[in-house]
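User: I'm preparing a small set of examples for a lab meeting where we compare how different chains pack in three dimensions. I only have the primary sequence for this one, and I'd like the structure in token form so I can line it up with the others. Please keep the answer compact; I'll paste it straight into my notes.
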Amino acid sequence: MRIVTAQELESWLAGGTVLERDSRGPKVVALENQLFLKIFHTRRHPALARLHPAALRFARNAALLESVGVAAPTVVDSFWLDRAQGLSGCLYQPLPGVSLETLFEQSPSEIHRLLPELASFIHQLHDKRLYFRSLHVGNILLVAEGRFGLIDFLDLKRNAFPLTKWHIRRNLRHLISHLDRRKLKGFPATELFQLYFKGSRGNEHTGTMDSPK
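Assistant: Understood. Below is the structure token output for the 213-residue chain.
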């Protein structure tokens, strides 16, 4: 990966709009050229971060999703921001759409209408052996009528074998945890899981999630 100079990074930050940040600094910046800058702050030891750069993993996951027909941002460049510290970044074309979290806050009835399609989408991810540990309504975008896409998929992996019941339940429990953390009361999670498992009858996914454990 190429190394971005401090001056180039400063120019991006000065002319862009910070969309997401944490205590370590900006994480996502909308640039003037319509691209997004994503900065991967890492808690790993710098040597490990250099060995497996987060920006490259993100780019590979974006390409993987595209290859299996799942809408995702298109990464156009990956680079080091501070190689010694293992700090990497990438530029990507954002995925047009609205997160299901935002959609629920704006129009709860629309979420109810989309539940069958959403259950089918999650089912398809699992059938493709895609384990997205951070799957939740903030990372799923409605990109078209009844069609969904994914963002923030750094921890996504494609398993060599079909996902187990443990993987699936852990995935769905994370979705519930996100709803609790964000205080998204009233989101029809139980109905979503019932539709998910109804579509899974006859295969290894069969089960219930009324009280996930």
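A couple of notes for your slides: The longest helix spans residues 108-127. Helices lie at 6-15, 46-51, 54-67, 100-106, 108-127, 165-181, 189-198.

User: Perfect, thanks.
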